[in-house]
Each structure stands twice: as structure tokens, then as C-alpha cells.
Amino acid sequence: MARPAPLTAATTPRCPLRMRGHSPAHPGFCACAVGTLAWPLGARPLHPTSSLSLRLRHWGQPAPQGDLGSAVVSLDQLVANPELPLSLSQVSLLDPKGQPTGCTITLRCSYNPRGKAGDATVPMQRWVPPPTVSPVPPMHPSKPPAGSKEEFQVRVRVIEGHRLQGNNIKPVVTVFIGQHRFRTRIRVGNNPYYNEVTVFCQSFHQTLEQLMMEPIRIQVLNSKSIRSKAIIGVFQLDIGTIYHAPGHSLSWKWLSLQDPRHPDAGSRGYLRVSMAVLRAGEPVPEQEEPEGDKDVEANLLQPPPCAATLQLRIYRAEDLPLAEPAVQCLPSVRGKRSFVAAAVRAGFAGRTLPPICDEIQLAILSGPRSSKVLGTATLHLSHISSAGAELEEGTPGFLPCFGPSFLPFYGPRADAARTSSTDTNVAYRGRVLLELSTHMGTPDGHQRGTINQEDIIRVQSHLPRHRFGLCGVFYSATMVPAGPELLRFELSLGNHGDTGDVTCKPAASITPHGCPVFDGNRYHYLPWYGDKPVAAVTSAWEDAAHRWDALNLLRAMCQRLEKNVVELRRAHGDTEGDIGRRLLRELAQDCRRVLLQLEAQPTPTPLDTHLRAARIHLLRRVAAAASMPPRAGWATLLPMAEAWLQSMGALAVEPQAAVPDVLLWMLRGERRVACARIPAPDIMFSRSSPSACGRSCGRLQTLFLTGSGDIHAQLRLRLWLGPVADSGALPRLIEGSLRIYAETYENQTKLWGKWGPRGLPGSPSFSDGAGRAVVPRHRIRPPKGWRWDGAWTVEPQRRLLLDTETNMGEVLEEVYENESRRPGGDWGPATVASTDASGVEVPPKEEVLCPQGWHVTDGWRVDVMGAVDEAGWEYGASVVPDSPPAAWHPTEKTYHTHRRRRWLRTRRRDPGAQGPEQDVATFLQLHRTESAAGSEAWEYGSLWSSRFHLKPRAGDVCRRRCWHRHMVPEQTPSVAPLFLLEGSPGTEEPAGEEEPPAAQRRTRRLCQPGPKQPLPLILCTFQQPNVFQLRCYIFQALELSPRGTKSTADPVAHVSFVYISQSTRVLPRTLDPLWDQTLLFHRVLLYGDPRGVQDEPPAVVVEVFDQDGGDGALEQVSSPPWRQGVFSVPMDVRPLLRPVALEVLAWGLRGLRSSVRAPSLEVHCGGRVLRTPPIPDPASNPNFPINAFLLVLSLPLDEELMPPVRLRVLDVRDFGYRPEVGQTRLLPEIISKMKAEDEAQEGEGEEEDDWWSKFYAALGDTAKSRRGTSRDRLKIYSCELEAVPEFEGLQDFCRSFPLFPPGSTTGGPGEDPQPVAELKGLFLLYPLPEDPSEPPPPRRFQPLPPSQPQRCLVRVYVVRAFELPPRDRNGLCDPYVRVSLGAQTLGQRDQYVPNTLEPVFGRLFELTGTIPLEKDLRVSLLDYDLVPPDQEIGTTTIDLENRLLSRFRAHCGLPALYCTAGPGCWRDQLSPSQTLEHFARTQGLPAPEFNTEGTAVTFGDHSFLLSHFESGPPQHQHHGVPRERLALHVLRACHLVPEHLETRTLYCSTQPGLEQGKVQMWVDVFPMNLGPPGPPVDITPRKPQKYELRCVVWNARDVVPGDTNLLGQQMSDIYIVGWLDGLEDQRQRTDVHYRSLDGSGSFNWRFVFPFEYLAAEQRCVLPAKKHFWSLDQTVLKVPPKLILQVWDNDKFSADDFLGTLELDLRRMPRPAPHARSCALRGGGRRRWGRPRSPPPVSLFRQRQARGWWPCEANSGGERRLTGKLELSLELLTAKEAAERPAGRAREEPNAYPTLPPPVRPDWSFLWVQAPLRTLRHGLWRQHRGCISLSLALLLLFALLLTFVYAAPGYLAMKLINPFQGLHISGDGGSKHPAAGAEQHKGAHKP
């Protein structure tokens, strides 16, 4: 929330705000808001003291709780320059206490002083696409600093699938880019085509490291299956893989899809994609479709070869920080802290090997459910695993493994969090014993578990500890913060030595208190001189000497090899062989030495074993290769050595060091303000050999302690770490003598004029140097094993008493004269007549003496500057009598009781006095041996917190003196004595001490802790220093950045060396200062061995600052050359200079604001300034009145040292006011000679049907061109025309240089430039002859064309666009073109191309404009939306002025042929001969001379004949006369711009720096004063041609059966379904061939598929609405593919899929003439011995085809033959189809050919319609023999059964009456047997 209250006077300021920050109430909340606030303040102007108050609040919360911070911004710069907006970024918001809250705000203020709020416009930040060719670095988007967030865009384009597993699938591709999900349209078949539709874009605002860890997951799903079974295959990779690929892209790559549940089951199909990562400011790589057939194996991306499980065992943790007490203010708590409940969190982004991420992140949490992180650690997989091949051929690789070993953790600490340090993870927070192992195979799903007891027992062997000692000798400390707080340095290893830790024993790990001393120039240092403080820490760790030794040996080997490689890289001639032989010799020696160490190295862990094996294998190979010189010569040794260095560097790591890093803290009072970390192996001592010691072990090194991103201290020290048992030789390594003593301060207070220890307010009786209470000195006892060496002595610590005048050359003394009065009385001397500024009594000014070695330059004077009256008095009223007032006022009031005035006097150091270092040495009594006594033993001060001094003064109420007592070991130890000081000195209660009262003891126990025991102090004393002299040669600095909103600076260089610093002179108003100065450091005192200084010299720190005002030159005396008051750089050191000429062509300024009145240009280079006359009226003519200038300079011969050319544009205002409008810089290059002209070789051409034939012929696609266009050629550039190298950016005459606001060249870190104007000009820098008698080279900028504006006709041809980003939710956009020039804008919204990312426009726009007033042509592509405004896709800007002025004739391209009519008609205003004459005039050449026939011409020094260019008569129509044709050939031979098509990149203001696609176009510019131009070119897009595909399905053979009938017969009810790919809704099907028992089917069925085909692109054009609610049709372009499927018809269940046939009509496999010869063809590479498959045929060429094609299906991931189809295919145009009509199926008209009904077997019918016929054909025809036999046997069996049944009765009757059947009559006749029977029966009746 912004509060406008402080804006008391203004008209209309506007302030766009951008807030970023973290909410205190919501720690994870990040806010970003953009808004614009305006204040109409009437007619009152802004005052320079006006300010803007900003306050950020939570919405809806009250003021105290909702406040997030506030800031106050001064508007003085906005008042001084109203035309320039005030831009401030990352302004910190402060809380009510003035502390930063963490929130920042970015604002941009503008001010309109004209008095109308409505006229004020908010300045819009617009990104301008950077020109491609320019020597100015700001023209390109600046590279953001490392670790900052940038704009990225990830694009994934799904092209097609191939052999996807499954039958009758409808695949859809789902793409996950990070956390964002995209999906394609659903396709049908196993080879779906997705191109032209699916391009997915996702933008990221992240750091590069974060982006590379984002995953991309591509999965193919079958939309017909249920969710659990829908996955066909998955492929996953990370964005870093794409970014590391060439061009940050993977183009037209095949992905091998895998089953995520069974990754080892093989490929599930292939998917072709293109992926790219776009970074702001980087070009988009071209993605051209590879030629030829699909070669899957050549462009295949395989998934990671194996899956693995990482198992992390966490055993124990130690040294974890203690929990802070909940309430620390209560006396009863007493700061008691408890142990934390810790948990370990592990995070890893990788899922397969090789992994996506290289890091395993580990964190210690304060509890299992807490999110508070105590410390973090990282395991790099590149350190704990190896692929083998990345090191050296044959080097064994190994899987990730670690430990069991301790891993240190680091994080923030509570007492350092209050500082502004940016590196919060520097403190040691504990370590964890863990073990990492890798198991191959699929994980079992368990993520947590309990460690077995056997594993815990096994790990116990890794826990034995050994005592280690850490020693640090501090030689110097400089660049430290100024006082008055005292400084100390703390050395710690883990928790040992940390004064804030209570778990370890105290140690002598901290240096004595030191008071910073001013070095006389800029910095402060600690005056240690000969007494160097020493810190010693004793700790216990695991002994991993075998790891440290191997690591240090490898590092030393790599360091030596790298040094030799650098020398070999610089060697030339004979020295190359000498250096090469030395490299091989030393390398072989190092390999043998390291191999001996490695072969004896133990391997307690698996990682030790793998690293040892890999190192031995590599070193043996390198040693064998280094044993002989290279066979191919010494030139091949360099790449071999670099490869060896890289391989050994990869193995020179040790992740199992176990010992934490050494931490070096600087304490300012009790606050930790800066820190440095030193890896323990770097300073580790080794007993095996000196080469196995750390690179810095026992050596002097320079460390920089950093905090909040700045250097807070520079330390020169010597560090040693090693086992205590091996520290016997440490005292000899230190060089000086060690002194160990106890120190305490005795304190007294002056009460009633007497000094005594009683009643000390704020200080105990005995304390340390900082005032903390310690036990009295008579209670201090030496540690165990130590004894006192002498009595307590008083030794004043003079290093703490150095005052602020130390090393000062001039001091301003001040004394305040005080007077007082009673109310209404007169003024008189006050009780305390003389005080300082704080009110402390000081001697009167008359009694202030001048110290020895100083002299007073002027007497006492009254300070009348500031808020005082004329006499210098300021007045105030005291609340308490005799106390100074709280505030002072310049005006006297009646109630004022006190007044004072300030007296000043200046004194300077005598020139003949001794130097500053002698003064310091005298004060510190460096050469005094006797002890101080008497009055000098006390130090006096006015307050306990103030600085103490030796001499007593008036007003001193406190004094103290320092007691020392030395101690020595009781027995001579075998180790370094300083490692025996662990723990505090012993104490004992003295006898006879008075016991304090009980109440006093209780109060002391509750209010403050008891006094502590002072730790022993260690000093290393050097008797005599060595005197050195340093000469620092500072020549120049280049490309400095101004601070704030300034455009220039007053640079000064500060050089710091040990404890001395000096500064160069201040050079005003330059960013490329040329100091040419030598700084001499006299009498630099360095202690220790002088040879050590040569081997390990101290660091020289050079810092460059912007100092306002003053020359700043220092007075020095020495031997270097004296020049202009300073010592210049000697000639043997100074860079070589040479005279050069800077020729300036200042043409004009473009894009100026309307408020600029009369701009002029200033050119700064090499200390010289060139000023041009101002432009009188930039609105009517923005060109300079004088354009050519010459500047003679002396610049360095080395181009790396050459200063840049800086340009400043100033506006000339009234009264000499010249505000700066803009500025920029360019890096010059010396031009030695003009570029040579190349000869052109152009061919002849022939006429084409239309312009598109020429376009496709230029693309190399002759199939899309209607006729051969080998002669009339069109040049297509893949970039902008100004980016073509041979055209020099179209800036051969003048170039465009963007001008940026004063003070910055970019909009901020990571942002793109924001130019405010543009300079048209050219700068040439060429050498001049050193001999003055030689004539200078001729001027280049002669002659010049007129600079008056001219009216022009502009024709803009927009052909097509591609690679556009999607703007709609369907992944597409509706682009249309809008062209603007000046105030004219063309392009209608309704002329959009719907639903496409690659639109073809074919549009022509004609505009008129005045150049250069309207020089920028903007071509924009917008996305049509139903409700405006439309969204911008991208914009490109073309400078028409450059094209009109360029000598390459870029305003209209030259065609290859001269035609007077037709599509290629000459369209320029001038004929070729007139154009050639004009070109000769501009080049300063004589006019061309033609012969009478026009077949020969003389141009320049050459003669040309028409026969040289045309071998025969022209073959195209409408050719011109020979004179014009020859002139055109000569013009093309001059390398002018040909007839072309340029590809321009589109950029969008919302995503600056990211390419938004490309547009292909060209522009013609015709000046109207030359007459009317020729006719325009017709580029109307071609229309697709209508075709009709007729497919007749005749027969089917060998179709696999799909069903089994009730009788067990294998059969199928066959029918065929067919459609064209993309036209699934127009599918057609045949009738059903029922009951096919042998797999045969007869159909005689015709499919008719009408479609539109674009022959130029070989794609079918399918316009269709994507959804029923879609407004426009989506034009899909897919390959012409016929899909036929064979199905089995089922009535009561879903039909069964049997097989499919996919025929690409462009590349069809040749059909087989017979069914028996039809078979599947392999899709892989052909093997030897197999016959080559016949080449494919194109139906568009052959028009007809008939034969047999195989159908296939997938089964278990393999292809199998499922049937054969006999087809006849015929392709007809729409006209032919109308002339030869044919109906579908067998419908009328049944012709071409006539299809008879199919002849099918009798059993081919549906069984439901005729069940009896089903039985007849199903049973009788197949089993009639069996049925007949069964019936005969059944009849026979029935007869037999009847006989058996009747035989017993018949036999019985025969037995009873044998002759019953025999009857004889008397008359000789016979009767019927039946009659006889009847008679017989009648005889028996009664």
C-alpha cells in the first residue's frame, strides 16, 4: 500500500510498482503485484526535498499486525531530470525499528511538470528485438548472473507413432512438462500421425539449475481401454538432457516406449518427437525433417538401460545442535537447553540409472513431523558412482555406494542469523553415520524399514576415534570493519573450538581482542606486528588417513599436470618437444608414486574398493602411455594430456572424508559477521610423505571472510591439521616462538575522587578484554600438566589503545564551548565549559596541545556551517538541571537554558616526521623489553564501553590494567604443547576471602551467571620483521558499471596489501579510466622466513570505487617515471600504444521522445571527447547537420586492452542545461584492410508457372514445384536479411546503436535492454602511419548521400509463419497479420487462419511513409479471439532506412532473370542498366559503357560479355533486351541483395528474449521520386486439389478364424472396414461373408473416399471442427494413408478384431500378384543373404494398383500374419471422377469397373435365418458318410433287436405244435393259414 502524503508539491507523478517478498505470517508465501498509482497534485511543482513514502500491508488486517514494511524514496533525481523516469529495483522494506523485513519493491516513477494529469502517460516498458549484427554488447539480451531466475520455454512436438503395441487401438499421447499436463488428439491405428496439431509449450521462470531438474514424461495411452490397462508405453527424461544436446534441442527423434510395470520387457513401440529448450536471448534451432525413409535405429533414444534401488541406511547422528530454550528472559530458566528430536529427510530426483539428477539431498529436521531444517548435506552421484567410459576406456565403473561413513551437515546458526550474511549454510550442524548401497532390479515398494542388528554391529568397526589437533597462526588481518567494537577470530573444527557450544571442552580457539586501526587510506587492520595470535583446537575423529593421502596425492598430481598442460598449450616450435618430454617424465614419476600408495591402501568400505580399483586402472594406463613419446608427433600430446587431466580430476574426489570443514569466524563483539570454510583434507598432515599432505597444510595462505556477499576481512594465516601424535614438528614449522599465558583485567572506578574496586557500575572487579566477568587472578590456576612460569605482571595492551588518529595525515580537532543561564538571565560559562560532541568534559581549547610530530595549520575557528546562528551558537533546554539538552536548535528562545558552539582547528603530520609504521611501532613499544610499571600500567576511560587511553584525562571515571602470567608444561612433551591446553585452567577458593551475604549470592545467581575461567592465550613471537617493497602498476580499467542512475563515474582504485593500502588518483566522469600510475608500498613488514614470501606471497586486492569529487592524487616519492604529478607505469610494463584514427559517421537519431529539443552527440574514447553540432528540429529532420568527423587517438596495440567507444546523447536546453538522453558503448576493432570482393557465380533460369514453384524449388523440394526452376532462383535465408554475414547487417552505410537510459545499459539483472532511442551512424577505427611524413589513409565516409527525408512506397510480402507458440487452450492459435508503419496499420481481424501453428498467409500489404521519420516497419502476428483484444503472438521490426541507404541495394532484391511480363516480371523502378549506372555513382566508379548491341559492357576495370552468363538464347518467355539482361548479370556479380525470402524471428513483449516463432517474408521499398514501380508479385497460397480414391475389395484369403461354432469348427464371419487416416467418421464397411471356414472371403465391394490433397506438401487437407461447439474448422494435414481392418462379426458380443492393413499412398509396398506370394516384410535393417524388398510405389504417380497385401496384428509384442486382401486401388482427380462416376459398394452407377455380386459358397449365410439349412450344410455335407453308416447300423441293430424279441415265442409255439403251420384239405385244395387258425380256435369253445 502506497501513501501519497509526503508528495506535497507536484503535478502528476506516476509510479508503477512491483512488489516481491515473503510474508512474516506466511513463511512460504511469495507475492508479486504490479500496479500504477498516480497523484494529481495541482499546479505546485515538485521540490527537490520531496519524497515518496511506500508502505506494504496485508489486505484486511489492522495496521500493527498487517504491516509488512515501508520505504522512503527521494525524488530529487526526478525533479532534476523530469524527462527521465526514476527506476529503482529491489528496494528493501524496513520494519518500524529500521531493520530489513525481507520484502522488496521495484518501482518506476515518472513526472510531468506541465500541469495536466490527463496528459501524463505511463511509460510502457517495451522489449525491442536485438539486431543480429552489431558490435555493441547491449544489443543482445544480457546474461543474468549465475543462480538468478530467467525466462525459459520448453517445447515438445509429437509427430507420429510407429508400431505401437495392441490391436485396434486408439492412441493418445499425454505429455507432462514439469507439473503441467498436455494431451494430443485421439488417433486410430498402430502408426498414428500427430504432426501439424500437437506442439506443447510451457514457460518457466526459474534458475537454470532448477530447470534442468524438471522432468518430461511422455506416455502413450489407449483411449479405448480402462484406466488401469490403458498405458501402452512411457518414456521419461529430464529437461537437462535436452538442454545439453546440440542446439538445446532433440529434433525428429524416435523414443523407445517402455512398460513402466515391466521395464525389462522390451520396447512397446516408438514415438517420434521434437523437443527444444528456449532460453531468453538464444536463437531457436532449426528443426528440419530428415530426408529419406524412417530410420528408427539411427535416431532412436533408448530409455535408461536399467532400474536400480538406492538403499540408504542411517545409523546414528552426533554433534547435533541443542534446542534453544523456550523462554530466555526468566531468571529461573538460566538458558538451559535440551537435545532436539531429530529426523533425517532424503530427497532424490532420479528414478533410473543414469539418473536425472546428480544430487541426493539430505536434511536434518528438528523432528519427524517438523519442517524446520537444522542442516543439509549433498551426495553427488558423480562422486560415489562411475560409468567407466567417462573416465578412460576400460576403466571399471560401479554403482552408487557410500560408507558406512559419517557425512557432515551444515546449516544456519542462531547467533549468525542476525547478520546480513547471504551464505547461511556455513555453520557445522552435526554429522550422520549412514550407508548407501544400490541394488539392481525393480524395487519392492518399501521405502522405510529397520536396520538389522548385524548391520549395526558391523558398523561399530568404523567408530574408533583418534585425537587430532588443529592449529592456526594468524599473520595479518586487514580490510576488517572499523571500530569501536573489538574484533576476534575463532577457529573451530566441528563443535570443538566453538565458543557458542557447551558440549565440548573449552579450547584456546579464539584470538585476543583486537581494535581495528586505520591504515591511512581506506581500510582497517589489526596491529599484531611481531606478536601473532595462535588458535589451537583438539578434537577426536576417525582416522581416514588412507583416504586423505590418496586424495592429496591425486590432487598434487593433477596440479602438476595442469601446470605442464598450460605450458604445453603456450609452447611453439622446439620448446614444444622439451615441455612434452618433461610432462611425460613427471607424469610417469607421479603415477608410480601414487600407485605405490594406492596398492597399499586399505579398503574398509565398498566405495573405497571401487575408487581404488578405478584409480589404479587409470594410473596404470596413463603410466604406460607416458612411458613413450607420442607416435603422431608432439602436436597430439596436448589433447591426450587434457584427456588424462580430465579423467584424473574425475577421480580426485573423496566423499567419505568424514571430518567436517574447518570454520573460521570473525566476531565483532558478540556477533558473527563473516566466515570462511576450509576443507579438512586441504590442510591435513600426512606422516607417509610430504606430497600426501594437503595443498595448504602448514603453508601461508590468504583467506577472504565473506558475509552478505562482501569481503569483511582478509586473513593471512598458516593452518595445520593432523593427529596429535604427529605434531612434534609443528613448533618448528611455525617459525616463531610460542608463548602461552593467562590474561585478566583488574577494573577500578573513581568514586569521590578515589579509585577502588567497589561499586563498579556495569563491570566486575576482574574481566576479560571485552568486560565479561572472570574469576580473580589469585584464583586462576594453570591446566593439569602445566605450571606457572613467573609471577603475574602488568602488561598494557597497547594494541587496544591505538586511537582514531593512528596513520592519519590530517586531523580536525573540535571543542564545544558551553554556556548556560537561568530563565530570563544572561548567558555565562556553564559548569562544564568545554565538552566534546557527546557532552563529555574535555580540556579547554587553549589547553589542547599539539602532539609531537604534528603542526597546526590554522588557529581555532568557529564552525558556522549547519543549523547554527551567525555566531555559531545552537540552543537547547535541559530537563534535568546541570545536564546537557536532548536536542539543539539554531534559533534562541526564552526557555532555552544552554547553548554551545563548535571550535575547530586543523593539524597535520610533519613532513620530516617518521612514517606511520614507525609511529605505530613507537606507540606499541615493539622493541621494548622491560615491563611497564607505575602509572603506565593503568588504562583510563570515561565509560566502560568507551575507548581506553594511557594518559589520564579530565572526566575519566574508569580504569583498568592487564595482568599476564606465563605458563609452561611441567614435563617436556613429545607432541606440540599447545594441543595439551584443552579445558579451562584450574581454580581454587582462596583462603580468607570474605563470604558475600546470602541475599547478595541469591541475586548474583539469578541475575547473571557466575564468572568464567579465562582461557589461555597463545602468541607466536617473531623477533625481527623483513622489510619489502611492493610496486603495483595500474594502467587502466575497462567497462566499469556506473552506480545508481549515473551514466558516468569518478573511478578510483584502492589497492590493499597486508596492512597497507593506497589509492590511485580519481579520474572524473569516465567508465574507462586510464590511470597509468604506479603505487609504491614502502617498508612492508612481513614476518617469517623471507623465502616463504617468495613461495607464498600475500594477496594483492584491487577494488575500484566511484568517488564523488576531488582529484585524490597522493604525494609519493620513488624511482618510477614521474608524469603529470604521479608515478607512471614503466615502459617495459606499459602496453604498447599506436596512433589510430577513429572516423565517425553521425547520421541521425531515431525514436526520440517529443520532449527532446536539440540533441547532440558526444563520443568518448581514449580520454578524448568529440562533440557534434545539435540537430535543430528532430521532429522534421532527425539527421545531424554535419555527419563525418575524425578523431586521432593513441590506443594499446593489444585489442583486449583497447577501451570501448562510449556514446552520449545530450539535449541542449535553455541557460546551458544539457540533460543526458541516452548512452551506450561499443567495442572497437581495428580494420587493417578493406574486405575483398568475391566473384559471383549465378546460373540462368527458366520460367515457372507461379511464385510458389520458385519457392519450393528454393527449398530443394522439386516434387512441390510444378516445373524446373533451375535458372530463375529464389534465395531463402534462414535468418533476417540484416543477419546475413555478406551483407554486413545492412549497416555498411550506417548502423543502429540503441541508446539506454543514463546509469544502466539493461533493465536489471537478468532483464532485457530497454532502449530509449537509437543512433544511426558508423565508426571505423584504423591504424595511422607512425612516420609523420607518410600521408594518412584516405577518408572512408566520402561522399555521402543527401540526408533529407523522402517519401517511399513499401510493399510487404508475408508468405508464411512456423514454430508459433500456442495461444488457445486447444494447443493452437488463430493467427493473422498486422503491419504498421508510422500511423498506418493494415491487417484485418477476420483474415485469420484458424487453428494452426504453421499458417500460410500469402498476403501483400502496401503502405506509404516518409523515411527516416517513419523508418520502423512492424510486422505483428496476433491471435484472433472472439472477444477482443487479441493476444499478441510475436512482432518483428524492420529498419527501412538501413535497407534504403545500404550499398547492397536491399530495398528491392535482384531476380536471376530479366522478364518484361509474367510472374517474374521486373518490379523495380529503374531498369537494370539504370540501376548499374546508379550503383557506379555511389561507389565512385565511372559509368558503365555498353556496345551497340548491348552484349558487352565495361564496368570499372573489367569487361563483361553476355555470353559469359548465357550459354545460348533465353529459353523463357518475355525476356528483355540483351542490354538489360547483361546489366542484371553484372549487378548480381557485384554481390548485391538477390531476390530473396528472409526468415524473421518473432518476439513478444510479455516474454522478452524468448523466440515466439518465425515468419518468412520480404519487403520492397520504392522511393516515389524515382517513378512508379513494377507490378507486385502474386503470392496467393495454392489451394488443395480434390481427389477421389476408389478401393475395391475383391477377396480375402488365409484370414485367421475368429470364432468356434457349436460343432467345434473354426470359422469367421468376415467383413472389411476402411477409411482414410483423419477421416474416421467417414469409414465404410463391406457386407459380411458368413461362415468362412477356410479363411476365404469374397466381397466385390467398392470403397469411395473423396479427399483434398496438397501435392506441394504431400499431405491430405482435412478441414473439420474439433468439437461441435468450435467456431472454426481446424485444418489438419496428415499423410494420405488408407487403413483397412478385418473383423469377425458377432451378434451377441463385440466384434472381434482380426487384422489391419495400413497403406501410405505415397510409399505403398508393391502388391503381390498371387495370394501365395503375399507375406509380411520385415521393418528392420536388411540382413545379408536376404533378397532386397521391392521399392515402394506412389499411387499419385501410378494412379492404379491391384494385387494382394498382407494384414497383420500384434501378439505378445510381435507381428503376425492374420490374412491377405486382394484390392484394386484407383486414384482420380475430381474432374476424372465426375467423368467416370462410380457408386459405393455395388450401388449405381456400378461402373469402372462393374462389380458383380460375390460368388460365395452355399453355407455362407446367417444361421438364424435358416436353421435347417444350417444343419444341412453344417452336418450333412461334412459328415454324410458317417451319418449314412450310422443309419445303416442303427437299422441293422433294430432288426436284430426285433428278432431277439420275437424268437423265444416263436420257438415255444413250434415246440408245442410243430405242425401248426401245416394244413391239408380233402378236396386237394389249400386254405389260408389264418382261416385254419380261426377254425382251431372255434373248436375249443364250449
Strand content range = 25-35%
Oligomer type: single chain
Shape: globular
> Which radius of gyration do the C-alpha atoms yield?
48 Å
Structure in words:
14% of the residues lie in helices and 35% in strands. The strands form 19 sheets. Strands 24, 26, 27, 28, 31, 32, 33, 34, 35, 36, 37, 44, 45 and 46 form a 14-stranded antiparallel sheet that branches. Strands 38, 39, 40, 41, 42 and 43 form a 6-stranded antiparallel sheet that branches. A 6-stranded antiparallel sheet has the order 81-80-79-74-85-84. With 1886 residues, the protein is mostly beta strands. The N and C termini lie far apart (144 Å).
In short:
By secondary structure, the chain is mainly beta.
Secondary structure blueprint with pairings:
Elements: E1 2-3, E2 12-22, E3 30-38, E4 51-57, H1 63-66, E5 67-74, H2 76-80, E6 86-94, E7 100-112, E8 150-162, E9 171-177, E10 180-183, E11 199-206, H3 208-212, E12 215-222, E13 231-238, H4 239-243, E14 249-259, E15 262-279, E16 300-301, E17 306-318, E18 343-348, E19 352-353, E20 359-365, E21 373-380, H5 381-384, E22 402-411, H6 414-417, E23 427-440, H7 453-459, E24 466-480, E25 487-493, E26 517-518, E27 524-525, E28 531-541, H8 545-570, H9 575-599, H10 606-626, H11 637-651, E29 662-668, E30 671-678, E31 700-707, E32 710-723, H12 730-734, E33 737-751, E34 754-756, E35 766-767, E36 786-788, E37 793-794, E38 810-820, E39 828-835, E40 854-856, E41 861-862, E42 873-876, E43 898-909, H13 916-924, E44 939-941, E45 958-969, H14 998-1007, E46 1017-1021, E47 1026-1036, E48 1051-1057, E49 1060-1063, E50 1074-1086, H15 1090-1095, E51 1100-1106, E52 1122-1123, E53 1126-1127, E54 1137-1150, E55 1159-1165, E56 1168-1171, E57 1188-1196, E58 1205-1211, E59 1220-1226, H16 1251-1258, E60 1275-1277, E61 1295-1299, E62 1317-1327, E63 1350-1362, E64 1375-1381, ...
Parallel strand pairs: 14-16, 60-72
Antiparallel strand pairs: 1-4, 2-3, 2-7, 4-5, 6-7, 8-11, 8-15, 9-10, 9-12, 12-13, 14-15, 17-19, 17-23, 18-20, 20-21, 22-23, 24-27, 24-28, 24-32, 25-29, 26-27, 28-46, 29-30, 31-32, 33-34, 33-35, 33-45, 33-46, 36-45, 37-45, 38-39, 38-43, 40-43, 41-43, 42-43, 44-45, 47-50, 48-49, 48-51, 52-53, ...
